Amino acid sequence: MRRSIALTAIALAAAGAGAPLAAAAVEQRVPGWPRMALAMSGPTVVYSTAGATHIPANGGYNVYRTATFTVRMNRVGLVKGTRKDGVVLRTSAGTTTGGGLSGDATGRYVLLATGSGFSPQVIFCCRTNLKDYPVEASGRPGAPVTLTAALQGPVVRYVTAAPDGTTQLATRYVKDGPGEPFTRLDVRPLGARPIQNLIASAPGTVAWVDQAAPGEVRLAVTPPGDPTPVAQPAIPVPGSVLRVLVTERMVAVLVQVFGEYQLVRYDVPEWKATIVWRGIDPPGPVAAGDRTIAIATGGVVRQHVPGQTLRTVFRLRGKAAAVATDGTRIAVLERIRTRTRRGLVRQSAITVVPVKQPPAAYAQELAR
Amino acid sequence: MRLRVLLAAAALLVPAGAAAARPVVAIQDDQITNDGSPAVVAARADRLASTGAKLTRVNVDWSVVAPVRPADPSNPDDPAYRWGTLDGPIQALQDRGIAVITVMFGTPRWATPSGKWNATPRPVDFGTFAGALALRYSGTWPKPGGGFLPRIKSISPGNEPNLNFWITPQCKRVRGRWVPASPAAYAAMLKAASKRIRASAPGILVVAGETLAGDGNGCTGPTSTVGTTEFTRLLHKALGSTRRVPFDAWAVHLHPVGPPDRSPFFPSWPTLPRITKQVNKMHPKGRMPILVTETSYATAYSAYHRYFVTEEQQAKWLDLTYSLATRQPQVEAVVWFNLQDNFDWPAGVYRDDWSAKPSLDRFRQLATTTPIPQKWALP
Question: Which of B24, B63, B9, B31 is nearest to B249 (CA)?
Fold first, then answer.
């Protein structure tokens, strides 16, 4: 603990001097470059890794897995030695991916486990009596496929698409206290036909680009305690959408406008457009949390908060595989090579850095 | 380790002709006792009957049947007993030609100081309830309205007693070291239950074990899992040299990770002979009947197993499971767990919406073509 505080102090000093932060920050290393996902939830960073174990007995076979882990954070970085195991999914159905992770302010999270040979499995972590629990886990051919999932207070909300393209918003109650049965499920039509992969959700909000209107982002909000999605006015976007991100207070899209890529954000309540980044080549990973955007591009990770231009917060040593932000901190997953006695080995490194000096108004919001 | 796996695999290659008989093809509906309404029970029993199975396993949750302490616990008609969740299902199953084996679990609040559902009960209370259960379903207990209540084939006094989920504590601290506690506790429960069952209904078989889980790192705290091999060895020691072994058959649970013929993890089909060899030591003729009272492949994720396969793999591996069981001559019955998917165990031959998985056809074909010996059939 004392060591982590010392390292953090070094990191802060480095930040003030404008030097790279990565060298001093506490890292979580993962062997190899497995398929992974990254998110933040309350006081923790959540990450998943995918892999396969070959069982050599009697001709051999593979068991594929996706596992999640959490690492605690303090205000400015990871806390050393705090990694905990979470969900462990194992299957012989087919290879797995890191899936999708979505957290909230409590430290709980939802894993949308994906892979070949099986329908996406929505797994909530964690109940008090069990570490994890499946929220939607149909293996049936033709079963609705879950597209996105997020926590909202005591419920998991997830969007499913049936084979005929119709979508529904499902609300599964996850509280396991007295009088609140875990398995209660409400399903409501969403009225969306999203273009593949162009749908995202955050606590209380779903955003998507509809096949019927590719030039706009559609929004539906779900007030707490109400399973019915309420449609919001659509947001026109300037080009062909490649990626949708959403938080409770912001929508962001990566678009291609003629020969250029643009990352554009729209903030509540006016949904006024702000171009965050533009470039000729597509950027690396992008993430949104609260009112902060993190974007990896050109060997660095940059932040964007309301009222500021892009600022560099992290210099990459390798290639960024994922970023995540909760509004006050940014997590970076990068693929690196480390020199060891056995030569260069591949590792994945997760680092957390604080968001730099937000403007006064936003700083007040964060302090609240 | 590799040699052991090879030997186990070799045991599986015993020619089919060497088997004494094909094991009974059975299936369990773990939800049939969860809804007391006659319509739901009848519908679930119909579904179970539609699989062709003639033997099933029924859960007996002691804490549900006896939520308050009966004044006369040995009398099944004591007004404190709530048999409603059992009478209906067992009768409905018998009406459809399906014999029933049972498994007991769930400690009532009144039966233990901690009030925990999984707490080790006082053997005398546990045994008395087992006796009442045996008496009620002995085939001789009058049914309200005339006739007699059905007869069950067997009682397992305890489910997965080597797991903390079902029995706690698993381990205790002795002179600074954590050592297994559950084998001795279970031995006391088993002896008490066996005595009362045999006295109440001599025809009902007592089945011991119902163990799950491999041999891990041993006791490190009160909730550690006691590995199957260690549990069995210590149970044997705790039972001591009794004139009559307090059970008639041994039950194991096999939920393999990987194909049934290749999974080297313990317990699994290739490693079953290790368990058989050990429990044979407790049989006077060295040949203990074995029941696989739970085996499955889930087709979706669940927090209890965390391993799943495709529906096509499930069907194929169900076939292979029963084929392998045929080659294990001491295995008398294999119960597929379970009938219908639910969040806790999505390994049904039916999906949660009652549509059929490919495994249903395979199961039905096996169940309808496998003869059931009198020992496990309805009278």
Answer: B24
Nearest to A276 by CA among A267, A286, A265, A287: A265
- Structure confidence by residue, pLDDT tens digits, A52-109: 999 987 788 999 999 999 999 998 899 999 999 999 999 999 999 999 999 998 899 9
Residue B20 lies in a domain: yes
pTM: 0.89
The answer, for A343 touching chain B at a CB cutoff of 8 Å, is no
| Cross-chain CB nearest to A134 (options B257, B301, B307) | B301
ipTM metric: 0.87
Cα–Cα–Cα angle for B249, B252, B255, nearest 5°?
A: 160
Mean pLDDT, chain B, as a whole number? 92
Question: Measured between alpha carbons, how far is A98 from A96 in angstroms, rounded to an integer?
Answer: 7
Domain coverage including residue B120: 2-372
Of all helices (H) and strands (E), which one includes residue B352? none
Burial class of residue B195, CB neighbours in 10 A (0-12, 13-18, 19+)? middle
Whether B377 maps to a domain, the answer reads no
B288 part of a folded domain? yes
B179-230 per-position pLDDT tens digit = 999 999 999 999 999 999 999 999 999 999 999 977 666 899 999 999 998 9
Report the alpha-carbon distance of residue B159 to residue B103 in Å, rounded. Answer: 6
Does residue B379 form part of some domain?
A: no
Residue B279's CATH number: 3.20.20.80
Tell me how far apart the alpha carbons of residues A275 and A254 are, in angstroms, rounded to a whole number.
Answer: 10
Structure tokens at B129: 């309830």
- Domain count along chain B: 1
Report residues of chain A scoring pLDDT below 70. 1-24, 128-130, 139, 175-183, 358-368
Give yes or no for B309 touching A (CB within 8 A): yes
- Choose from B31, B301, B317, B354 for mutation: most chain A CBs within 10 A: B301
Cα of A94 to nearest chain B Cα, Å: 8
| Residue among A53, A58, A132, A136 with most chain B CBs within 10 A, to mutate | A58
